[in-house]
Structures are given as C-alpha cells and as structure tokens.
UniProtKB/TrEMBL annotation:
This is Adenosylcobinamide kinase. Pfam families: CobU (PF02283). Keywords: ATP-binding, Cobalamin biosynthesis, GTP-binding, Kinase, Nucleotide-binding, Transferase. Catalyzes ATP-dependent phosphorylation of adenosylcobinamide and addition of GMP to adenosylcobinamide phosphate. It comes from Extibacter muris. One of its GO terms (biological process) is cobalamin biosynthetic process. Its EC number is 2.7.1.156, 2.7.7.62.
Length: 326
C-alpha cells in the first residue's frame, strides 16, 4: 500500500510517519517479514542539517530501521541490484519510509546529477517502482504552499513539488495531513487519532478568525497576548492568543521551552490557546527563524497531544481535528 503524509515544518509528520510504517511492518498479514527501510533524502551540508539528521536517527533507533541514503535517482533502489529489488526477489518485500519528498525534489532539480527539468517525471517513476517492489510505502512531504509570492526560482520549485505531491496522492491508498501532531485524514484511513486531557487548542493561518471563533465556540471573555504578556501569566489566565509569539519571545530571551507544553498542561489545564500555523511555507534563510519555527511546531505538537480538543480555522470556519462535540 502507498501512503502520503504531509504537513508543515515541526508539525509532527515525521513521528507520525515512522509510527505508521512501523505498525504496518509489524502487521505481516501472513507475508514474510521483509526489512524495514528508511530512505533518507536530506543531503548533510552543515551543522544544522547534521543536527536534524541525528535527531531523526534517534527517533528511529529502537524501531529497527535500516537507513539508505539516496539523494537522487530513487528508481535505482528498485532496479536490479538495488536493496529494494534484492529483498523483493528473496520473497521478503520491504516496508519503506521515504523522507522527505521536498528534499528529494530539490536534489533532483538542482544537483549536477539530478533530473533537472524532468524532476517530476523521474521522481514519480521512482515512487511507482518502489511501490511495486515493497509491501508498504510511506512518503513524507512538506507543505510549502501557504505563504506569499516567492521568487521566480522558488515558485518553479513549489510548482514541481506540488505536481509530484498531487500525482502521488492520486496513486495513494491514503493521504494524511499532520497538524500540530494530529493526523487529519484527507483520503483513506490509516491511523487512529489520539486522546487528550483538558485544554483547547485552536490553530490556523494568520488572520483566519481564530480569536472570534474561540470566543464564539468556547465563550472566551478575556485573553492574554503571547506577544506582550509576562511569561508566568500563561499559568493563571483563561486564554492565550498568539502563542507562537510567546515561543518566539522565550526563544529570543534564552528561556527554557523544552517542557513548556507539559508545564502549561500541569499548571493551567483548562486554558484555551490560539496559535498561528507558522511551519508551512518555504524554509526561512535565517537560522534563528528556522530554529524558532521548528521549536514552535514541536511545542504545538505536544500541546495537541495533551489537549482535549484541537480545532483548525480557515476563513473563519472551524474544523475539529481532534475531540468530539463540546
């Protein structure tokens, strides 16, 4: 089966995808248990990417993944002599996690040994070949489509990635968008949603009406603003808006945010929080902006796991992505 998992930076899509392929690998369905393969497409080009690679390897350590570095030409993995091909002809079709399509697309477009103008065709061909040779294939891709007009070159990249995502989605048995760690099924059904505790988390893009929605839906009367409140105010308020700005200010101040979600849940379990989605769009050039965006995404992922209910607001309309009727 083929599964596409997408989401913004720091959304929790990697953890979700790893749990999904691990679970699928554990369900043999009477078939020989082939290898559990992780196809890594991120080129290590500095300390920042090395750190990210180490973090992802740590996440996979206990799950039995065999990692294959492949930056271009994924079709070769399923060709004669390739590891996927060799496993398949032995009768032990593997389960594969490929991460991440956004990196693979950039590699093919811009690397000297990449496909260049034929990137979309070559990448999709590679996915089709892998799919035929394996038992389950989970492909992770990035949502880079929710910000202002990029440069001409970046627009070409976005359009290429969009074509690839769309073609994989048409082939896929399931498509899942991960928002703040919560899987929202777009096509098919892959994974159960988690359970929460007390708080309410309302997320969505900027200027989408999250504050008004929370006031109307949950009866919020007073707010503190993450862009200006004292850090300890969050533990004694009824509602916080612009939580992402709180994370930014704490990061700038060097304050510890590693257990912010857990501490907030313990000390203010009934709080209502609104937060802008800042993980979607092209990866920022500035190192601080990248680090802040990922940290905010990870904290919101933890909050979403804890929360009783998570809503997403688009154009003033709320959609519940975790929790039932209030």
């Amino acid at each position: 089966m083929l599964h596409l998992v997408t989401g913004g930076s720091g959304s929790g899509k990697s953890a979700f995808a790893e749990d999904l392929i691990w679970r699928l690998h554990s369900e043999n369905d009477g078939q020989a248990s082939g290898p559990l393969l992780y196809i890594a497409t991120m080129m290590p080009y500095g300390e920042e990417t090395e750190k990210k690679i180490r973090r992802h390897r740590l996440m996979r350590r206990e799950k039995g993944f065999e990692t294959i570095e492949c930056y271009t030409g994924i079709h070769a993995l399923a060709g004669e002599g390739g590891p996927v091909y060799e496993a398949a002809i032995r009768g032990a079709r593997p389960c594969i996690l490929l991460e991440c399509m956004s990196n693979l697309t950039a590699n093919e477009m811009y690397s000297p040994d990449g496909a260049g103008g034929r990137t979309a065709e070559e990448v999709v061909r590679g996915i089709e070949l892998l799919h035929t040779m394996c038992r389950n294939l989970v492909v992770v891709s990035n949502d880079v489509f929710r910000e202002g007009e990029p440069s001409c070159e970046m627009q070409i990249y976005r359009e290429t990635l969009a074509r690839i995502n769309a073609r994989i989605a048409r082939m896929a048995d399931s498509v899942t968008e991960v928002v703040c760690g919560i899987p929202a099924e777009i096509k098919g059904n892959t994974y159960g949603k988690g359970t929460g505790v007390h708080m309410i988390l309302v997320t969505g893009g900027a200027c989408q009406g999250k504050t008004v929605y929370a006031e109307r839906t949950y009866g919020v009367k007073s707010w503190i603003d993450g862009g200006s409140c004292a850090f300890d105010e969050i533990y004694a308020c009824t509602a916080i808006r612009h939580f992402e700005l709180l994370v930014r200010r704490m990061t700038e101040a060097g304050a510890c945010t590693s257990d912010l979600a857990g501490e907030l849940a313990a000390r203010n379990p009934d709080v209502v929080i609104t937060v802008d989605e800042i993980g979607c769009g092209l990866v920022p050039v500035d190192a601080f902006e990248r680090a802040y965006r990922e940290q905010a995404g990870r904290i919101c992922t933890e909050l979403a796991q804890i929360a009783e209910r998570v809503d997403r607001v688009v154009c003033g309309i709320g959609m519940t992505i975790k929790g039932g009727e209030r």
